[in-house]
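Chain A, query sequence.
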Amino acid sequence: MTDIATNLREVKAQLPEGVRLIAVSKYHPAASIQAAYNAGQRCFGESHAQELDRKAALLPRDIEWHFIGHLQTNKVKYIAPYIAMIQSVDSLRLMHEIDKQAAKCGRVIDILLELHIAQEATKYGFTPSACREMLAAGEWRAMSHVRICGVMMMASNVDDEEAIAREFDAARACFEGLRHDFFADSPSFCHCSWGMSHDFPIAVRHGSTMVRVGTTIFGEREYR
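Chain A, predicted structure.
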C-alpha cells in the first residue's frame, strides 16, 4: 500500500523555500486525498470538473483546490463557487467565462496563463508570442473577477534533461517579460507553475515556484 504521508515528506524535502507543492489527486479516491490532508497537505490539483465536484463535497472545506487540466467553458460554472486557482487558462474565451461565473458567485478567481512551449501538438496553451499579443490587446483589463497570477506549462515528455531545462528556461523568460511589460504593479503576478513527478527537481532549478506532483505521492492512478 502506498505510504502517502512518507511520500509527501520526501517530496517536500526536495523543495526549496518558496516553492509550493500542488498534490495532483486526479484519478485518486477521496480517501487518498484525506490521507494527504491528515499529513498536512492542503493544496490539491484536479483536472476534471465533475470528479472535482464530487470530491469537494466529501472532503474538508479548507482544502485549496487548483484546476490543472484542460477546462471547457461549459464546465466553469461547476467549480467557480469554490476553486482557488485555475492554472490552465489557454484562451481569452475561457478567461471571459471564468470572469462571468466568478461574478455570479461574488468572487475573484486566481488564474494562470498556460503556455505552449513543449514540442508536442497535444499540449494546450498560448505560445509566448500569442500570450503577449493577447495581453497587449488589453481586453483582460476589464475583467474584474479574474486575477492573473502568473504562468504554467508542461515540458515535453522526453528523457533529455537538457531539453526539459531549456523549455523551463523559456517559460521563465516569458514570465519575466510579461511581468515587466504588463504586471509591474501587480505583486500577485508571481507564480511559475511547472514540474511534475518525473521532472520537478529540474523545474525547481529552472524557475518554478509551484510544482504539480501526483504519482510520486499517491502512486499509480487508481481509476480513469
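DSSP finds nine helices and eight strands in the chain. The first strand starts at residue 20 and ends at 24.
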